[in-house]
Write a structure and sequence with these properties.
CATH class of the largest domain in chain A: Alpha Beta
Mean pLDDT of chain B: 95
Largest sheet of chain B: 5 strands, mixed
CATH class of the largest domain in chain B: Alpha Beta
Structural class of chain A: alpha+beta
Shape of chain B: globular
Number of helices of chain B: 5
CATH topology of the largest domain in chain A: Uridine Diphospho-n-acetylenolpyruvylglucosamine Reductase, domain 3
Number of domains of chain A: 3
Distance between the termini of chain B: 52 Å
Number of domains of chain B: 2
Radius of gyration of chain A: 18 Å
Number of strands of chain A: 14
Order of helices and strands of chain A: EHEHEEEHHHHHHEEHEEEEEEEHHH
CATH topology of the largest domain in chain B: Ubiquitin-like (UB roll)
Oligomer: heterodimer
Low-confidence stretches of chain A: none
Strand order of the largest sheet of chain B: 2-1-5-3-4
CATH architecture of the largest domain in chain A: 2-Layer Sandwich
CATH superfamily of the largest domain in chain B: Beta-grasp domain
Chain lengths: 268, 162
């Protein structure tokens, strides 16, 4: 499959990337390309210019701070999955990164690319939302609760580039995913995090955009056990329904995966 | 159009190509390296796996211009001086193939996983093969071949250390 023609640019600094992005109305950033290139091959996307930001060194880092792990937007899933710093502080985050796609995809795909694209079935949005992370951009810092605004939609403005994410270190966290047997994308993925401020539960794959489940959060704050949420279910009327599964099926999976995520967190 | 300069299987290459040319087409059609296969063309099947700067990637989901300045290794670059790479040898001895279409990608993925992961067990090998599909469903012998090659690689490393 061959995409529409475009002009390729390789940026070596954020400033250069921003200048190139401002120079064309239909330019797109190219990070790992594991979603964008597939969409271009299907001719679902037709950027006039691609600005490759994968060579920008300042975007690729993992830094352990006192109460947080900070990951550069250009950091590959493979690097997060195998990072000692991430595994020590937030093992569920390393596990999540190691469950995205397959090894070859993880060698290319990036944190920033996943967040800026905000695919309804992407894994990272669940971790960012459940951990109450902050998304850093070239303009501002955006709280996770404000970042994901809808299907493939975020709070990012035109020309604004994600530079990194600060993940607060939780007391416990767990992620459980039911992958689609063919595509391996999350049919439902649930990330559960317990912090000193409470419990947050974020669901990906089930709806048009990652979302929290306040009823489960309240129940888990009282008792952080799978049993505490076994009787709670999300409303299927807001969930996706397609050839892979009905909304009722997905609603059922949310409770099951949330229970497994809590169990995984309890062992962590 | 851009002139893309890179190293492929140890040789420097510079060729003009369209920016939209995928790496797999560049390798196959411009360089004549047809060992890298196109299976699904949607980054699911892994028949197109090559190494870019030492890491396994799907060459159908990367543009050739992105590889400018990089070192690319394809299945043709594994054998040295007419002698099969140990992973190729293990696939031959364990009959790790049926029709052979997925084999180049399987072997490039296997070389990458053996390099990254010490003490590979069968469950880990199967998990690492997530992105490589064999439609003959001949996974059993593929896993055996990779297990065998991994053990030999570990033995070689010990031999060198001693």
């Amino acid at each position: 499959m061959i995409p529409y023609p475009f002009t390729y640019h390789r940026a070596t600094s954020l400033a250069q990337a921003q200048a190139l992005l401002g120079g064309s109305a239909d330019a797109k950033l190219l990070a790992g390309g594991q979603t964008l290139i597939a969409a271009m091959k299907m001719r679902l996307a037709q950027p006039s210019d691609l600005i490759d930001i994968s060579a920008i060194k300042e975007l690729s880092f993992i830094r352990a701070e006192k109460d947080a792990i900070v990951v550069g937007a250009g950091t590959k899933h493979f690097e997060v999955a195998t990072s000692d710093a991430v595994t020590r502080a937030i093992p569920a985050l390393a596990e999540l990164a190691g469950s995205i796609g397959d090894p070859a995809v993880r060698h290319k795909g990036t944190l920033g690319g996943s967040l800026a694209n905000n695919d309804p079935a992407a894994d990272y949005p669940a971790a960012v939302l459940a951990l109450g992370a902050s998304v850093k951009t070239t303009k501002q810092t955006i709280a996770a609760d404000d970042f994901f605004t809808g299907m493939f939609a975020t709070a990012l403005d035109d020309g604004e580039i994600v530079t990194g994410v600060s993940f607060p270190v939780p007391e416990r966290a767990g992620y459980a995913k039911f992958p689609n047997p063919a595509s391996r994308y999350a049919m439902v993925g649930v990330f559960v995090a317990k912090t000193k401020d409470g419990v947050r539960v974020a669901v990906t794959g089930a709806g048009p955009c990652v979302f929290r489940v306040p009823e489960m959060e309240a129940a888990l704050a009282k008792s952080f056990t799978s049993e505490a949420i076994a009787g709670l279910a999300v409303d299927p009327s807001d969930l996706n329904s397609d050839i892979h599964g009905s909304s009722e099926y997905r609603a059922h999976l949310v409770t099951v995966m949330a229970g497994r995520a809590v169990a995984a967190a309890s062992h962590g | 159009m851009s002139v893309v300069s890179l190293t492929v299987n140890g040789k420097e290459v510079a060729q003009e190509t369209e920016d939209r040319t995928l790496l797999v087409y560049f390798l196959r059609e411009q360089l004549g390296l047809t060992g890298t296969h196109i299976g699904c063309d949607t980054s699911q099947c892994g028949a197109c796996v090559v190494h870019v700067d030492g890491r396994a990637v799907k060459s159908c989901t990367m543009f050739a211009v992105q590889a400018a300045g990089s070192e690319v290794t394809t299945i043709e670059g594994l054998a040295k001086d007419g002698k099969l790479h140990p992973v190729q040898e293990a696939f031959r001895e364990n009959h790790g193939l049926q029709c052979g279409f997925c084999t180049p990608g399987m072997i490039m993925t296997a070389v990458d996983m053996i390099r990254r992961i010490p003490n590979l067990d069968r469950a880990t090998i199967r998990a690492e093969l997530e992105g490589n599909i064999c439609r003959c469903t001949g996974y059993h012998n593929i896993v055996s071949a990779i297990e065998d090659a991994a053990k030999r690689a570990a033995g070689d490393a010990e031999g060198k250390a001693a």
